Amino acid sequence: MNANTDETAKDEQQPGAGPAPRVLTDDELSRILRDQQFGVLSFVRRSGHPHLSTVLHDWHPEERVVRISATADRLKVRRLRTAPRAALHVQGPDAFSFAVAEGDAEVSAETTVPGDATGRELLAMTPGFDDTGEEAAFLEQIVTDRRVVIRIRVSRLYGSALDVPAAHS
Question: What is the spatial distance between Cα 58 and Cα 149, in angstroms, rounded to a whole number?
Answer without folding.
Answer: 11
